[in-house]
Design goal:
CATH architecture of the domain at 284-487: 3-Layer(aba) Sandwich
Shape: elongated
Structural class: alpha/beta
TPR repeats: 37-70, 71-104, 139-172
CATH class of the domain at 284-487: Alpha Beta
Distance between the termini: 91 Å
Pfam family, one: TPR_11
InterPro entries: SGNH_hydro_sf, TPR-like_helical_dom_sf, TPR_rpt, Ycf3
Organism: Shewanella psychromarinicola
Protein name: Tetratricopeptide repeat protein
Length: 490
């Protein structure tokens, strides 16, 4: 059989997803014709399809060395780097592909993804729009444009693009990830604190009957969060029952692991509430005023608990900004977390008391300050001092602008099981970071005359949790915040 016939056969096998057979045939072709760029490129595609990224990259580079004038060679190499989240290398490849053929929609779209992940939002938006101009039938392009807007806090533009993504998909059935638009719209409405709209979007997604089980679980657990925060416990339990399968998915990506944590945490809080174990925390009285507790998931436990502050009765009303870290509130470029927080605070009545409780995610062993200080080789004390100075000053300015009182809440001492994921040689350093974070926060609050709820002192024993308040590896019991306020009044 001729080289030409063998190439046609190898390409047919690749299209039929018979990658191993196609690869074997490519190897035979290259043995006879070692400089045949198309055969080497097809070899690379087969390795890529088989998930063997290192040989795929090597073969793409060989093909490009022989013929650098084919945009597909550069673009497909970029796809491998993109899958590995090597965004700088991927960007270079897509730029080379576009230099050869500027009007290809996929490289424009993929370059937008790379630039977005490098926080070059303006250029990412431009390349995403170019992809849409070249192919207005692909819902993925509109979806990603919506995410670019969303991450910048441009909520109105994000909503328009995400709705368009759903419209285009319903019409053309061309996107690969269009169903994520339901979750993105749900998240957007959460960030806007438009909870009824979020529930309606979730129901539309669920009723579409097009969701994967994973996508279905994310929307159901999202609904459970809203129901729990607004004390619709029966509805929350029902959605948790419908999403029990979340714990059965093998090899969960990080976002699904986070939803598994949400599922377990809310289920646990409802069980604790119904057991009456913490009934003393819910002594609500008729004259209780709302005190707001703004946080990520750490705000769930204190929701609806009763406290006394400055001789007045309060009921805690928790408000939620998913995934927010302190670092998000001190970056120069405006983002969805900043816009979400300001939109919450500006709607509160003058004189409102607001606990702000971010920072625990910044102080985890697998992300935040610990990881950043290792990679950047910066002294963690410098990182923390710089970040918290900006953070506390920003909150003080917001409090003054909106005539509210902000009370800060520290980071609890880490649970031993969360520390144990680190090598023994690194565990003390991590504990030192959490301890220094809380010390620096206390100093910053004292300098600006801001109240601090010192949850670290309450939970600490030798740099880790005393296990008196944790109800899982991250979260604390409903009694924690009332206890902290009682200590303040003593």
């Amino acid at each position: 059989m001729s080289i030409k016939s063998n190439m046609a056969r190898a390409e047919a096998l690749f299209r039929q997803k018979e990658y191993a057979e196609s690869l074997s045939l490519c190897t035979k072709i290259i043995e006879k014709k070692p400089k045949l760029a198309n055969a080497i490129h097809l070899t690379a595609l087969n390795y890529y399809a088989l998930g063997q990224f290192a040989p795929a990259i090597a073969e793409f580079q060989k093909a490009i060395a022989i013929n650098s004038q084919l945009s597909s060679f550069h673009s497909n190499l970029g796809n491998v780097y993109l899958d590995q989240e090597s965004f700088v290398e991927a960007s270079r490849c897509f730029e080379k592909a576009l230099n050869l053929e500027p009007l290809l929609p996929e490289p424009n779209y993929n370059l937008a993804i790379c630039l977005h992940n490098q926080r070059n939002y303006s250029l990412a938006e431009n390349f995403c729009k170019k992809a849409i101009l070249q192919d207005a039938t692909n819902s993925d392009f509109y979806l990603h444009l919506g995410v670019i807007y969303y991450d910048q806090g441009q909520f109105d533009n994000a909503a328009k693009a995400l709705v368009k993504a759903l419209e285009v998909e319903n019409k053309h059935k061309k996107g690969r990830t269009h169903l994520d638009a339901y979750w993105q719209l749900f998240s957007l409405h959460l960030s806007q604190h438009r909870y009824q709209d979020a529930l309606e979007v979730a129901d539309l997604g669920i009723q579409s009957q097009q969701l994967s089980e994973q996508q279905l679980c994310t929307l159901l657990i999202g609904k459970a969060i809203i129901y729990f925060l607004f004390n619709h416990l029966d509805e929350a339990k029902h959605t948790l029952q419908l999403s029990e399968i979340i714990h059965q998915f093998p090899s969960q990506p990080k976002y699904l692991k986070n939803f598994s944590v949400f599922h377990h945490y809310i289920k646990n809080l409802i069980a604790l509430y119904e057991s009456g174990e913490y009934k003393d925390c819910y002594n609500l009285v008729n004259d209780a005023t709302k005190m707001y507790f703004i946080s990520e998931s750490h705000g769930f436990a204190p929701n609806r608990t009763s406290i006394q502050y400055k001789d007045q009765n309060y009921e805690v009303n928790s408000l939620f900004i998913m995934g927010a870290k302190v670092i998000h509130f001190v970056t120069e470029e405006e983002n969805k977390y900043q816009v979400s927080l300001v939109s919450l605070l500006q709607d509160l009545a003058p004189g409102s008391k607001v606990v702000v409780a971010f920072g625990e995610i910044d102080c985890r062993p697998d992300e935040g300050i610990y990881s950043y200080s290792l990679k950047s080789k910066r002294d963690y004390k410098d990182v923390i001092d710089d970040m918290l100075s900006k953070y506390v000053n920003a909150l003080k300015n917001l409090a003054d602008s909106f005539d509210i009182e902000i009370i800060l809440y520290g980071v609890p001492a880490p649970h031993p099981q969360s520390i144990e994921i680190l090598p023994p040689s690194e565990q003390q350093r991590f504990k030192d970071i959490v301890a220094y974070y809380n010390l620096a926060l206390a100093n910053a609050c004292q300098s600006l005359n801001i109240k601090l709820l010192d949850v670290y002192a309450l939970t600490n024993k030798d740099g880790q949790s005393n296990l008196q308040h944790h109800i899982d590896n991250y979260h604390l019991s409903p009694k924690t915040v009332p206890t902290l306020f009682n200590l303040q009044s003593q």
